[in-house]
Every structure is written in C-alpha cells, then in structure tokens.
Specification:
This protein is mostly helical. The protein has helices at about 5-25, 30-35, 45-80, 85-90. The chain has 4 helices and no strands. Helix 1 runs antiparallel to helix 3 (about 45-80). The mean pLDDT is about 75. This is Protein-export membrane protein SecG.
Length: about 110
Amino acid sequence: MSTFSIFLTLIVIVAFLLIVVVMVQNPKGGGLSSSFGGGGSQQVGGVKQTSDFLDKSTWALATLLLVLILLANSSIIGSKNVGESKLLDGNSAPPIENTNSTDLPEVNK
C-alpha cells in the first residue's frame, strides 16, 4: 500500500467525520445541543458544553483534513521525482528515420 493510499483513506475518514459533526450542529440553536434540555448557559456538562465541543471538533477536523491533503500532495510530488515525464524533458519525439519510397511494400490493385 502506497503512502498516497494511506493518506487518501485517512482523508475519506476525516471528511466523513467532519460531515457528521457539521450535520449534528444546527445554526439556529437546535441540533444535538437542544436535545439535552433547556437553553441556560449556566449548566455544567449541558448544552453549552456540547456546543463548545462540537465547535472545537469541527475546527480540529477541518484543520486535520487540510493537513492530510497537503501531506498527500507532497507524497505525490515526492514519488514523481523518480520518473520524470519525457514530455517535460524535451525528448518527447523519437528520432525520425529517413525512409525511401522504394522501401515501402507494394499494394496490389
């Protein structure tokens, strides 16, 4: 398994977790926070704590996703240095051989 495949698997997992965390949140005060009871912010371990946890986990997963994407990109670039493209080297076309018309096979009509 290549390094890029490992990064790609981790990116998919983190992206799925990020989707789940964002879907649990509700920007109008609903979501997982509202299912734990009243709207008082003085509760310990209640709505305020859940909202803070969801906000922090969203930022952490988004940052992790960005770092994994950058690392996956660098792993692609690192593996490409071994075999450069012939198009980029300028030696893309093989030498053209000079052929005479006498060397070509005849076609019967």
